[in-house]
Amino acid sequence: HVQLVESGGGSVQPEGSLTLSCAASGDTSRATYMAWFRQAPGKEREAVAHVHPDGEIICATSVKGRFTVAKDNAKNTMVLQMNRLTPEDSAMYYCAAKRGGAWPPITHFEYKIWGQGTQVTVS
């Protein structure tokens, strides 16, 4: 099994930056698709970025040009660098993983492994 732990959330002013990290532990020997999702109160969970085991990254249109994702396979970590944050980016951010399935992924239900989430507040 793979376990995921996010860190790095917090409060920031608009136009500020935050860096989130996702640390994977457990059975990381097999190829794993990873992703960042976010969910604001009263809203559906939405994908921020999907990361293919080969390194291809798909970012949501709403964050393109502002957010970047980096994956370090040697350290089993994934980083979400968020710049030029707006209040609309406020949400609980989750790291997720899956072993296979569709690419690009269609829904968040495909991901079976989730971290506990880290809160990002922009105000």
Alpha-carbon Rg, integer: 13 Å
What is the succession of H and E elements? EEEEEEEEEEE
Tell how many strands the DSSP assignment holds: 11
- Give the helix proportion (percent range): under 10%
Count of individual helical segments: 0
Poorly predicted runs are: none
Task: Walk me through the structure.
By secondary structure, the chain is an all-beta fold. It is 0% helix and 50% strand. The chain has strands spanning 2-7, 10-12, 18-26, 33-39, 46-51, 57-59, 67-72, 77-82, 91-98, 113-114, 118-122. The strands form two sheets. Strands 2, 4, 5, 6, 9, 10 and 11 form a seven-stranded mixed beta sheet that branches. Strands 1-3-8-7 form a four-stranded antiparallel beta sheet, with no helix packed on it. The radius of gyration is 13 Å and the shape is globular. The model has no long low-confidence stretch (mean pLDDT 93).
Short characterization:
By secondary structure, the chain is mainly β.
